[in-house]
Write a structure and sequence with these properties.
It is built from nine helices and twelve strands. By secondary structure, the chain is of the alpha/beta class. The protein has two domains: about 120 residues, Rossmann fold (3-Layer(aba) Sandwich); about 100 residues, Winged helix-like DNA-binding domain superfamily/Winged helix DNA-binding domain (Arc Repressor Mutant, subunit A, Orthogonal Bundle). The strands form three sheets. Strands 2-1-3-4-5 form a five-stranded parallel beta sheet, sandwiched between helices.
């Protein structure tokens, strides 16, 4: 049984914010659409049945509060409002407008993702109550085994020794096979750099990881592909 996709609308006038949220949502199988203003967000939300809307409270034209209030009178689409203020009164305004959750900027992308998934579990539970992948703790490919319980990596049956960051990179790639992992995303996920991290950090570690794998199996090393100008993608070579 494979996880089904869900549809998310991101409405925010900051392109950087939309880009970060999109990266995290697409890794969770989401189909993402974007807009930068309230009027367009309302039109899109009325015309399309989204599973979730993530929307900035303050946008040009119609505000997120206004869009939320108008949309909730027509449809019951779950909405997370992004707010610039963390005071109780601001959150109350969001909930009174019909928001399902309010998240204060600047926010942790991982926390936002968890909040989004909590809402989706309530609204479309059949898509989320799935067996946990890799119950044995092992991720197995034809020429590569990652044993998370023992933190061991076997290439063609031979154990290779990785640094902590090299191991975390390989495991992250293996959990997102076929998906593009941008350097920005990897910096956030592996090094906890929210922004402005040095992309060379990622490239250096990926090179060392591939070199160690290549010494045993060039085929296994070739599973980690470079997506030029963007980042990396792991392919399952059978």
């Amino acid at each position: 049984m494979t996880q089904m996709t869900y549809k998310v609308l991101i409405a925010d006038d900051e392109e950087r914010i939309r880009k970060i949220i999109r990266m995290y949502m697409e890794l969770e199988q989401a189909i993402v659409e974007e807009t930068h203003n309230g009027e367009q967000a309302l039109i899109m939300a009325i015309d399309t049945d989204y599973d979730l809307i993530i929307m900035d409270r303050l946008m040009s034209g119609l505000s997120g509060l206004e869009v939320c209030h108008m949309l909730k009178s027509i449809k019951n689409t779950p909405i997370i409002l992004l707010t610039e203020r963390s005071d109780e009164a601001d959150r109350i305004l969001g909930f009174q407008a019909g928001a399902d959750d309010c998240v204060c900027k600047p926010f942790s992308p991982r926390e936002l993702l968890l909040r989004a998934k909590a809402i989706l579990k309530r609204t479309i539970p059949e898509q989320f109550w799935l067996p946990a992948p890799f119950p044995s703790g092992q991720i197995v490919f034809p020429n590569l085994v990652i044993d998370h319980h023992a933190r061991r990596v076997l290439v063609e049956g031979e154990e290779i020794y990785l640094t902590l960051k090299e191991y975390e990179l390989l495991r992250y790639f293996s959990l997102h096979v076929g998906k593009i992992c941008t350097r920005e995303l990897l910096l956030m996920e592996i090094w906890n750099y929210e922004e402005n991290g040095d992309h060379r950090t990622v490239d250096t570690h990926v090179k060392r990881l591939r070199d160690k794998m290549h010494k045993v199996s060039p085929t296994a090393a070739s599973m980690i592909r470079t997506v030029w100008g963007t980042g990396y993608r792991m392919d399952d070579i059978t």
